[in-house]
C-alpha cells in the first residue's frame, strides 16, 4: 500500500467526506486536526498566515452541521465575520447560515452562525437558549487574545463556555503555543496541540535599495549571519553617495511590475500616507488596467456606492477614489468609508487591482491575498510614540504574500531608507514566532455577570484558572529580578553622580544632597530643551516645505537657483515648468549636467533664486539632449547673489526653547567646571529611575492577583449598591447582584459603570433623540487628533446633560482611585455637536466641519465608525434604561443616526 493510502486509512468517514469537498489535497496538519475534532477533542492549531488554518474551522462547521449540532464561528472583527459569512453561505446556503455582529443580525437561529467574539461572550452571560444545542465553537485568530483593548473577551468566552462544547482555536505561529495549549487543556479538557511552521507558498525576502530589488539572504538560509553581501554593498554605496531620499512610490511599483511581483499590498503605517500614495500614482499616470478590466472595475464601484447621493460622494472624494481604482490601484485603511473598503477588498481579491496601499489593519486576516508585500518603513505609531515593528507584526504583515494555488512563491520587499540596517531586517525576517500574552483583567460588567451566574467562590476559581493568572504565576520571579536589576543600575548611577558633584562643589554631606538635586534639575532642563528643539525642528521643517513649495511654484523657465548642498552650492536652471498649483515639479539641468524633475520633499532647506539665463526653445522639449551645452553655459556664468554656503537643513527654534536656554544659562550648575560630565551622569540617573519605576509598576500588576483586583471591584460595586455580599453561618462569603447590578450586566462597554450611573441618576432623561445621541457619544468617542478645545454644544439641555455626565465621572474616578482601581476614561466632547447635527438630519459635510470646529478632525470612515459605536451603546441603553421615555428615545436616536453613509452595508 502507498503512504497516501495508509494515511487515508487513519481518518474517519467524516474526514474523508470533508476532504473530497476541496479540489486540492489537504495538508497533514489539517487532516490531523479534523480527525481530533471528529473524535470529540478540542484543538489548538498554530500555523503561519496563509497556511490554511481556516480549513480546520470549516471542518468543525461541517461536523456540527452533519450531526444536527450548532456551530458558532467567531472572529475578532466585523469585516472578518462578514467575509466568513459569505464564504459559508456559498457552501451551505442562506437559510442555514446566520450572522451576528452587534449591529447586524441575519438568520440568528441558523445551525451555523458567524459572529464576533463579543457577541458570543454576551450570549454566554445572558444564558441564551441558542447555547442549548451548541456543539462546536471556532475561535479564528485566537492570538487576538493578547490585544490590550479587546483580548480579555476571548478569555471570558473560553472560561465560561460549557465544557461539552468542542473548542477549535486557530492561531498564528506563537512561540509559547505549548504554554497556551497547556492552559486550554487545564480549563477545557482534552485538547490536541497541532503546530506547523510550513508555509504552503514559500516566502522570499527582498530589500529594495535605490532601484535594485535584491534578495535579503544568501541562498535559502534565513539567519542574521547570511545577509546578502550585495544588499550590504548597495546600502553602503547609497550612504557614501549621499542619495538618501525616500524611494518614490510610483517608481517602486513600476519596478515591481517589471519584476513580475504584482499584485502587491504596500503597507504604509499612516492613513494620510496611503491617500498620498494614491495621489502620487495618479499624478505619475500609472495605469495597470486593460479596457475590459476597467469596465468591470467601474461597474463594481458604481454598484458599491448605489445608495449614496452625489453630495455625499463629493464629500467622500469619490472621483479620485474611482479614478484610481479604474487604473488598477487604491488604498485601504480605517479612515475610509466601510463601503469603499469593501469595494477595494472585492476588486483586489478578484485580481482587478495590482497595488493596494494599506495600513496594518489589513493584516488582521481579511482575505486579500497578494503575490508580494511591501513595507515602506519598519517603524509605526502605536498611539503614543513611533516604535519599531516587532517580529510578530513583521510576520503578520508579510504573511499576506503568496496566493495558494496561484503563486509558487510570495515576496516580502522592505524599502531601504537611511537608518535601516539590513542585518536588523534579517533579524525580523528570520524570527517566525512571537509570544502570546494574556491581557485579561476583571471589569465591572464582568464582575456582576460572574457573580450573577457563578457566585462568589466559583468566580474566584474562574479567575484563578485564567490564562493571565496561569502566565503570572510563572513570571513573578522574573519580574522581581528585573526590578532588582533596575534598582542596582539606579544605585550605580546615583553613586557616580554623587561623586562627581562632590568633586565639583567640595560640599559637606549636609549640602551635598542639595547639590545633587540641583544637578538632576539641570539635567531635566537640558533634556526638556533637547526635546523642544527636536519638536521645533520638525515644525521648522514643515515651514520650510511650505517655503520650498511656494518658491518652486513661482519659478519660470530660465530661472537659475542655488541648491542647498552645503559649501559652494550646486546651481541649476529651470528648463520646464509643468507643475500643478498644489504640486510644483519643475525640471532642472544642474551645472554638472544632471536632468531631474524636482519636488519640495527633495530638499531640507529652501533653494535660492540667484539669476536668469536664456535658453533655446528646444531645451524644454528635450532637456536631456541639451543638458551638456546648457550645463557648460551655466558654469561659465557668474551670479552675484549666489551664497557661499547653503546647508541642507536649517535649525528650528521656539519661544519655549529660548526660555529653556535662559533657564539653563541662569542655573547655578551651568557655571560648574564639570558641568558636561555631571549632566551626562545625571541624565543616565534620570533614565535609570524611569526604568525602575516602570518595572515596579509592571511587577505590581503581576504580583497583584486577579482575585485581589476582582475584590476591589466588588467592594466599589457594593458601595454603589450594584452588589450585595454576605457571610453565611459557616463563614463562607456569598454575593448577589442587585436590581441595578442586573442592568449593569447588560451594558458591555469600557465605560459601563459610568453609563449605568448616568442612567440610574436620570441625567439623560427628557432629552430629544439628537441630544441623547450626542451625550452618549461623550462616553464612546476617543479623539485621535485634537485640534482645539471648543466645548459649545447646540442646545442648553445637551449642555446640562454633559455637565452632569462629567460631574458623575468626577465622582466615579474619585471612588476608583480610593479603591485602588484603574480610572475609567473621561468623557470627550469632540464628537457631540457633529453627532447631534447628524441625528437632526444635517448633511455629512456639515457634520464633519462641526466635528473639526469641536477639535476632532474626522475622515468619513471615522465618522461612520463612531456613529455605529454610538448606535451599539444606544441599543444597549434601550434594553437597560430605567425610564420608558429613555428607551423610546434611544430607539429613535439609533434610527436617526442610521441613515445615508452610516446605513450603507458595513
Automatic annotation (TrEMBL):
InterPro entries: DEAD/DEAH_box_helicase_dom, Helicase_ATP-bd, Helicase_C-like, P-loop_NTPase, RNA-DNA_Helicase, SH3_HelY, Ski2/MTR4_C
Signal peptide: none
CDD domains cross-referenced by the UniProt entry: SF2_C_Ski2
Highest taxon listed in the record's lineage: Bacteria
Domain annotation Helicase C-terminal: ranges: 251-452
The Helicase ATP-binding domain, residue ranges: 34-192
UniProt cross-references to SUPFAM superfamilies, sorted A to Z: P-loop containing nucleoside triphosphate hydrolases
GO BP annotation list: nuclear-transcribed mRNA catabolic process, 3'-5' exonucleolytic nonsense-mediated decay
Pfam family, one: SH3_HelY
Gene Ontology CC entries for this record: Ski complex
Coiled coil: 480-542
PANTHER family xref list: ATP-DEPENDENT RNA AND DNA HELICASE, ATP-DEPENDENT RNA HELICASE SUPV3L1, MITOCHONDRIAL-RELATED
Protein name (record): DEAD/DEAH box helicase
Amino acid at each position: 500500500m502507498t503512504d497516501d493510502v495508509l494515511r487515508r486509512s487513519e481518518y474517519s468517514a467524516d474526514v474523508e467526506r470533508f476532504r473530497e469537498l476541496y479540489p486540492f489535497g489537504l495538508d497533514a496538519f489539517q487532516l490531523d486536526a479534523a480527525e481530533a475534532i471528529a473524535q470529540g477533542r478540542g484543538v489548538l492549531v498554530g500555523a503561519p498566515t496563509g497556511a490554511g488554518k481556516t480549513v480546520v474551522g470549516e471542518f468543525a462547521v461541517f461536523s456540527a452541521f452533519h450531526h444536527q449540532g450548532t456551530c458558532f464561528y467567531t472572529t475578532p472583527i466585523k469585516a472578518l465575520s462578514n467575509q466568513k459569512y459569505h464564504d459559508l453561505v456559498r457552501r451551505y446556503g442562506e437559510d442555514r447560515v446566520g450572522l451576528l455582529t452587534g449591529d447586524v443580525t441575519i438568520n440568528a437561529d441558523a445551525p451555523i452562525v458567524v459572529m464576533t467574539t463579543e457577541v458570543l461572550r454576551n450570549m454566554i452571560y445572558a444564558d441564551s437558549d441558542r447555547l442549548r444545542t451548541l456543539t462546536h465553537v471556532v475561535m479564528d485568530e485566537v492570538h487576538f487574545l493578547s490585544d490590550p483593548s479587546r483580548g480579555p473577551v476571548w478569555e471570558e468566552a473560553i472560561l465560561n463556555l460549557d465544557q461539552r462544547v468542542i473548542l477549535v482555536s486557530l492561531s498564528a505561529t506563537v512561540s509559547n503555543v505549548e504554554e497556551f495549549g497547556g492552559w486550554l487543556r487545564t480549563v477545557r479538557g482534552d485538547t490536541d496541540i497541532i503546530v506547523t511552521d510550513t508555509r504552503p507558498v514559500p516566502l522570499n525576502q527582498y530589500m529594495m535599495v535605490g532601484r535594485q530589488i535584491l534578495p535579503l539572504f544568501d541562498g535559502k538560509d534565513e539567519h542574521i549571519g547570511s545577509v546578502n553581501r550585495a544588499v550590504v554593498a548597495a546600502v553602503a554605496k547609497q550612504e557614501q553617495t549621499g542619495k538618501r531620499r525616500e524611494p518614490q512610490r510610483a517608481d517602486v511599483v513600476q519596478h515591481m511590475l517589471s519584476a513580475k511581483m504584482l499584485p502587491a499590498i504596500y503597507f504604509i503605517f499612516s492613513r494620510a500616507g496611503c491617500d498620498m500614495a494614491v495621489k502620487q500614482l495618479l499624478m505619475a499616470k500609472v495605469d495597470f488596467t486593460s479596457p475590459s478590466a476597467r469596465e468591470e472595475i467601474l461597474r463594481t464601484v458604481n454598484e458599491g456606492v448605489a445608495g449614496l447621493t452625489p453630495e455625499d460622494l463629493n464629500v467622500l472624494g469619490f472621483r479620485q477614489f474611482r479614478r484610481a481604482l479604474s487604473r488598477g490601484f487604491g488604498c485601504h485603511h480605517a479612515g475610509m468609508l466601510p463601503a469603499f473598503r469593501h469595494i477595494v477588498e472585492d476588486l483586489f481579491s478578484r485580481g482587478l487591482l495590482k497595488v493596494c496601499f494599506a495600513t496594518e489593519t489589513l493584516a488582521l486576516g481579511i482575505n486579500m491575498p497578494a503575490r508580494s508585500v511591501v513595507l515602506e518603513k519598519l517603524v509605526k505609531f502605536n498611539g503614543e510614540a513611533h516604535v519599531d515593528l516587532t517580529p510578530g507584526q513583521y510576520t503578520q504583515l508579510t504573511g499576506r504574500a503568496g496566493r495558494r494555488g496561484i503563486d509558487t512563491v510570495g515576496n516580502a520587499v522592505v524599502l531601504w531608507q537611511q537608518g535601516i540596517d539590513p542585518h536588523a531586517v534579517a533579524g525580523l525576517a528570520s524570527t517566525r514566532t512571537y509570544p502570546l500574552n494574556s491581557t485579561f483583567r476583571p471589569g465591572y460588567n464582568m464582575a456582576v455577570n460572574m457573580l450573577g451566574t457563578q457566585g462568589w467562590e466559583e468566580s474566584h476559581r474562574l479567575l484563578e484558572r485564567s490564562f493571565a493568572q496561569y502566565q503570572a504565576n510563572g513570571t513573578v520571579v522574573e519580574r522581581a529580578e528585573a526590578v532588582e536589576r533596575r534598582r542596582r543600575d539606579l544605585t550605580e548611577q546615583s553613586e557616580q553622580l554623587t561623586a562627581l558633584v562632590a568633586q565639583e562643589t567640595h560640599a559637606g554631606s549636609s549640602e551635598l544632597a542639595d547639590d545633587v538635586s540641583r544637578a538632576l534639575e539641570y539635567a531635566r532642563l537640558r533634556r526638556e530643551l533637547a526635546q523642544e528643539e527636536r519638536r521645533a525642528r520638525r515644525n521648522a521643517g514643515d515651514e520650510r516645505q511650505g517655503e520650498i513649495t511656494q518658491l518652486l511654484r513661482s519659478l519660470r523657465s530660465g530661472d537659475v537657483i542655488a541648491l542647498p548642498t552645503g559649501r559652494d552650492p550646486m546651481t541649476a536652471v529651470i528648463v520646464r515648468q509643468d507643475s500643478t498649483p498644489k504640486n510644483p515639479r519643475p525640471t532642472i539641468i544642474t551645472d554638472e549636467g544632471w536632468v531631474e524633475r524636482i519636488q519640495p520633499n527633495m530638499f531640507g532647506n529652501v533653494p535660492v533664486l540667484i539669476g536668469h539665463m536664456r535658453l533655446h526653445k528646444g531645451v524644454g522639449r528635450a532637456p536631456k539632449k541639451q543638458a551638456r551645452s546648457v550645463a557648460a553655459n551655466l558654469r561659465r556664468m557668474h551670479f552675484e547673489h549666489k551664497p557661499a554656503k547653503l546647508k541642507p537643513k536649517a535649525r528650528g527654534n521656539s519661544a519655549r526653547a529660548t526660555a529653556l536656554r535662559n533657564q539653563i544659562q541662569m542655573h547655578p550648575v551651568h557655571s560648574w567646571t564639570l558641568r558636561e560630565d555631571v549632566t551626562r551622569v545625571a541624565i543616565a540617573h534620570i533614565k535609570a529611575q524611569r526604568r525602575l519605576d516602570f518595572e515596579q509598576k509592571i511587577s505590581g500588576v503581576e504580583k497583584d492577583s486577579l482575585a485581589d483586583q476582582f475584590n476591589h471591584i466588588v467592594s466599589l460595586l457594593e458601595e454603589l449598591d450594584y452588589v450585595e455580599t454576605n457571610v453565611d453561618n459557616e463563614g463562607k462569603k456569598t454575593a448577589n447582584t442587585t436590581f441595578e447590578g442586573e442592568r449593569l450586566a447588560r451594558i458591555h462597554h469600557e465605560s459601563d459603570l459610568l453609563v449605568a450611573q448616568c442612567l440610574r441618576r436620570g441625567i439623560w432623561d427628557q432629552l430629544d433623540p439628537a441630544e441623547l445621541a450626542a451625550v452618549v457619544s461623550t462616553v464612546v468617542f476617543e479623539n485621535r487628533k485634537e485640534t482645539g478645545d471648543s466645548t459649545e454644544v447646540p442646545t442648553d439641555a445637551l449642555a446640562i446633560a454633559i455637565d452632569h455626565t462629567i460631574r458623575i465621572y468626577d465622582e466615579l474616578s474619585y471612588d476608583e482611585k480610593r479603591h485602588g482601581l484603574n480610572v475609567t476614561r473621561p468623557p470627550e466632547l469632540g464628537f457631540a455637536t457633529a453627532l447631534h447635527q447628524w441625528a437632526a438630519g444635517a448633511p455629512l459635510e456639515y457634520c464633519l466641519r462641526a466635528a473639526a470646529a469641536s477639535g476632532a478632525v474626522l475622515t468619513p470612515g471615522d465618522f461612520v465608525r463612531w456613529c455605529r459605536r454610538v448606535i451599539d451603546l444606544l441599543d444597549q441603553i434601550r434594553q437597560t434604561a430605567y425610564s420608558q421615555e429613555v428607551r423610546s428615545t434611544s430607539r429613535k436616536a439609533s434610527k436617526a443616526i442610521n441613515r445615508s453613509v452610516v446605513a450603507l452595508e458595513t
